[in-house]
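Appendix B, record 7
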Amino acid sequence: MTEEPHEMPEVDLGEVGQLGDIDPALATAVLELEAHAAEAGWDQPARLYALVDTAELLAAEPALADLMGLDAATAAGTLTPVEQEPLAGELEEQLQAIAWPADVAGCAAVVERLVLPPDADAAIPDDPAAAAAFARQHPDRQEVRIVAGATRAGATYCALRLRAHDDAASVVGGADVVPALLDLLRATLELQEETAEQTEEETE
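Structure tokens (predicted):
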């Protein structure tokens, strides 16, 4: 894989298929990104996307409406992914330094990882490099593509595809399937608000 895993993602398959209070706009955007990533194939670098309100985007850029084949009615209540510049390092590390501007409604990430069965957790070395080597050599490893998204309103959604079951019908999704990654995505949305509050306090 292009991006060597230094940390195993916590994947809670117990959440898969539990709809709950899922935001349909976010779920749709995440599933569209998953389908787009699938077209590019495997062994791809991690990607990061801003999620913007489609109606607001078209209001600011009217020419996009024709390009996207949308009008005000079809744009209402939807989110448009906007791909960001390629990441310079590991996704998890980069997310800790990102803060989105106020006009970004949410964000999403696409990343490939190795997942091990739960009974392998106790044997995973603490050293990141050793853990990555252990995962690559484990006979029961699974390669998985994770697409995770979060919004400022607090909604989350994930879509997962295993390389061993590489077809659209086998994609699974849920609101909190990869909690650690979702926490990092949510934090990037909170940082901007906290920074703005600190700036206001400093100017008073």
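Remarks on this record: The beta strands are 47-53, 79-83, 106-115, 142-151, 156-162, 172-174. The radius of gyration is 18 Å.
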